[in-house]
Amino acid sequence: MWAGFTPKSPTEQQMLRRGLLILALAAMPTTAFAQGTIDGVVRSTDSGLGLGTARVAIPALDIVSFTNPAGAFSMSGVAAGTHTLEVRLIGYAVLTQEVTVTSGRTTNLELSLDVAAFALDELVVVGSRTRPRTVTESMVPVDVIPVGEIARQAETNIDFLLRNVVPSYNVNIQPISDAATITRPANLRGLASDHTLVLINGKRRHRGAVITWLGAGLSDGAQGPDIGSIPGIALRQVEVLRDGASAQYGSDAIAGVLNFQLKNDRSGGSVQVKQGQHFDGDDFVDGAERSWAGHGKSVSVASNFGIPLGEFGFANVSVEYGNQEPTDRAIQRNDARALVNAGNTAVRTPTAQVWGSPRVTDDLKVWLNTGYNFDDNEQVYAFGNVATKRVDGGFFFRNPNTRGGVFSGDGGESLLIGDVLQAKGLGSADCPVVTITNNVPDPVALQQVFDDPNCFSYQEMFPGGFTPQFGGEVFDASIVGGVKGRTDRGINWDASTSWGRNQADFFIYNTVNAALGPDTPTDFDPGLYNQEEINLNLDLSYQVSEIANVAAGFEQREERFEIGQGQDESWKIGPYAAQGFSSSSNGFPGFSPLAAGDWTRSNTALYADLNLGRPDDAWALGIAGRYENFSDFGGKATGKVSFRFQATDQIALRANANTGFRAPTPGQQNAFNVSTVFDIDLGDLVNRGTIPSTSAVAATKGGKQLEPESSVSLTAGVMYEAGAFRLTADYFRISISDRFAQTRTFKLEPHEVTQLVSEGVTSAANLAEFRFFTNDFATLTQGIDLVANYTPAEATTVSLLFNYTGTEVTERNPEVVNDARVDQLERALPRYRGVLSLSQQLGRLDALVRGTYYDGFYDSELSDPELRYGARVLVDAEVSMPLADNATIALGANNLFNTYPDENPNSGGVGALYPESTPYGFNGGYYYLRLSYDWLWATR
Predict the structure, then answer these.
(1) Is the pLDDT of residue 854 over 60?
(2) How far apart are CA 888 and CA 883, in angstroms?
(3) CATH 2.60.40.1120: does it fit domain 33-116?
(4) SS3 of residue 453 by DSSP
């Protein structure tokens, strides 16, 4: 053995064996024996029952777990030693407890939570680039929606889920609105959908491909992210920052930030099945004049489960699949009724067109969130998604006697008759003139047209007119990967890269390219929009001292917007164009080779963030700055100052000021669109084009290269906590200059048509008017957000949400932004909105009742500018109960009393009984059944 030492006695031999064992253990990898496991149960102090969805964390090790419905949790891979454990759950006081973990062993815990007023005291990462803070510590207003609140919502669409729980979040439901039917525009704090930045696990989410050409005025032309691809079952919480944050996160964060935190459980999971439908449907109301066919039945199946990756990693998978049938809230149009009364039996009855929610099929969403701890100070992570769906909607009815460029060329006095010989350059067939009297074409002349192979009318193909059907196949995918850790000097670092893509491949059928004549197809592929982004990030943070935390970072982003060419027949100028027939697929023209293309942009950003103050200090101060340089319009600097003061044990004050900006997207600068809209003055349909601001035609009306918007935001608020009651009230003021949105419409002159055709807009001859993006106006948006929660007992929670938002156009060029456009910006959303909720546990039953007040609003598309639709109160209710171990059934209703908006006084002209855009929809009540099953789930 060792020189000079030979064991002789049993004691010496035993010491030698122990010494050799110690040396052997020391030589082995430390990670094999330096970690242990924590298993435990979280219960209510009052009832002793297990508490599900409680958040159990060791903040110093960045380890998080959530309890299953029985209150159990498990953490593996916990470093040996003594740590501070935190347990948080909505409605309960935060529990902090020291726990000692022994290498290679399991520590068992019994934890109890007391009912308290800290109902939203969750850790959040938005609002500061330094360390995470609780909502009560935050210097900015943040709403936190925990997993339990997400799970009990009726809606599967995340947009509508947020509308129920965030006071200043609105979603408009829009039929016959081109691409807005595919991706619904949402509004935070009264601003457009692309004024809100979306993060996933704190990383920037790519924007959607769809540009909302018809966005109820407020979101016209917006290109925001498509959050409809995020399933609720994949989320452990949603953080809503109601404050400007461009100085921290860059462009678009003017209204606020949505941060979706994905589940990270490494075992267990859940399955959820939802089915529902609207109260009204199938039966005709008021005889044959109103068709309410279509309950809008929806079915979805979702599952989430965790998989351990070795001893120190996790993979969490979420899958959701669903289908939704359409609704129809149309009435028969006046012109269609007149045709029927005149003896036209080919007109679709009981309504000529469908007006309602679109059909959504094969709506598949798959998400994966993974992580692996190499040691206590380093983790590799990745997350991403794939989502697909098909959305089918409809357009306006095309009258077989009056639709210009297809059925008539003189406003309905006579039919437009095609001359085949003239189109071929072979002379003329001398086709007869077919006059129209009392909605009836001359039957003798029309029969002569049908009998002559060298003459034609689209009445032969569509004797009752036609209604184009439009939609898109949406594909969304992303992947984010990175490594984060902590150096020996205490510097936290996070290096990541991401790729994201959103594509909308459009289709339109039951329509024509009239200029192609009798050979026109009726189904078209008009092309696609594609948005793609790549991000590189490096984030650093460091606690300089007990009161000072600093952060800094770098970001490089590349984005590309593509317009994919449509099939030839969707955009071609056919041989019958010279005879007055319209070119391109009617309703949604295809993208020509000149209009198709791709446009790229890159930008680089640097940021810094300083936070001063300890969590238990009476004051906290935050300062942030960011410089961003774009390849197409140069640099932009923004800044932010935040302050919080704990005035008393119950009252805290907070305020901040920040500057921000929104950069015009490559899509907004280069895309064009043609929409068919109802002109209330003419009482008829017209084609409206949106053209690039750099077009020669736009330049004659003041169009030019777009520049970034600039904003100045102020927020001031108070937080009050006393016993079981908590209240936050925040005032906000957002001033935006050089704001870009679509202009008013301009009449198109003949020479301008020629110019647009040369630029690739082959359907320009069919346009009556056009508009474009501009920076020529400024707005001031002010409002108040109020959130109150009261938990008088463990089984009872009362909450009140209130929002007031008002927008004023403060500067404009009236030649570009006219009074009607001002009305759209100032009056499209309800100024007041309130939500009062009561959650009550009654033995085995769990009940929820929610009342929502919507102030009156103005609908810009179909109504008289002076018409204001009245206020409404909608009531939702749900009752759930356990069926067996870990299984729950819930029965509920949204809009329990089947409330509808005021009827549209112009309904007969357009076939829409209700306004086109409403903040709460036009489909009436919806009832649903939800079954869920959970099994033990835990994380690292």
Answers:
(1) yes
(2) 5
(3) yes
(4) coil
7 has a pLDDT exceeding 50: no
Give the pLDDT confidence score for residue 616 in this predicted structure: 76
Confidence of residue 22 (pLDDT cuts 50, 70, 90): very low
Among residues 510, 616, 601, 604, which one has the least CA distance to residue 555? 604
Distance CA(552)–CA(626), nearest Å, equals 9
Average pLDDT, integer, range 163-189: 76
For residue 630, give the H/E element and its range: strand 619-630
Percent of the chain with pLDDT over 90: 49
Q: Helices in 28-157 by DSSP H: which ranges?
A: 147-151
Contact 117, 723 (CB under 8 A): yes
Name the burial class of residue 4, with classes exposed (0-12), middle (13-18) and buried (19+) by CB atoms within 10 angstroms of its CB. exposed
Could you give the CA distance from residue 894 to residue 607 in angstroms, rounded to a whole number? 44
Q: Closest Cα partner for 67 from 58, 57, 76?
A: 57
What mean pLDDT comes out for the span 850-877?
82
Distance CA 114, CA 45 (A): 6
Q: What is the pLDDT of residues 727-771, one digit of tens each?
A: 999 999 999 999 877 777 788 777 887 888 777 776 677 677 888
Contact 508, 588 (CB under 8 A): yes
Task: Tell me how crowded residue 423 is: count the other CB atoms within 10 A of its CB.
Answer: 22
CB atoms within 10 A of CB 245: 28
What is the spatial distance between Cα 80 and Cα 860, in angstroms, rounded to a whole number? 64
Q: Nearest to residue 351, comparing CAs of 404, 300, 302, 292? A: 292
Residue 496 is predicted with a pLDDT of 97
Q: Concatenated DSSP letters for 691-707?
A: E-TTSHHHHTTT-----
Q: What is the DSSP letter of 763?
A: T
Amino acid at 436: I
Rounded Cα gap, residues 309 and 304, in angstroms: 16
Which pair of tokens denotes residue 694? 């750099």
Return the pLDDT at 214: 66
Q: How many CB atoms lie within 10 A of CB 42?
A: 27
How many whole angstroms separate alpha carbon 37 and alpha carbon 106?
5
Q: Number of helices and strands (H, E) in the chain?
A: 13, 48
Q: What residue spans define the domains of the chain?
A: 33-116, 142-348+354-394+467-938
User: How, if at all, do strands 290-291 and 256-262 pair?
Assistant: unpaired
Tell how strand 256-262 and strand 196-200 pair up.
Answer: parallel
* H or E element that contains 25: helix 10-27
β-strand partners of 509:
469, 523
Read off the pTM: 0.84
* First and final C-alpha spacing in the chain: 44
Cα distance between residue 609 and residue 139, in whole Å? 14
- For domain 142-348+354-394+467-938, say whether CATH 3.40.720.10 is its number: no
In the DSSP assignment, the letter for residue 916 is S
Task: Give the mean pLDDT of 4-10.
Answer: 47
**One-letter amino acid identity for 672?**
F
Distance between CA atoms of 89 and 70, rounded to whole angstroms?
Answer: 14
Structure token pair of residue 126: 């938005």
How many residues are present in the chain? 940
**Residue whose tokens read 């098909």:** 390
Contact 543, 610 (CB under 8 A): no
Q: Which helix (H) or strand (E) holds 718?
A: strand 709-722
**Torsion angles phi and psi, residue 618, rounded to 5:** -75, -20
Contact 86, 217 (CB under 8 A): no
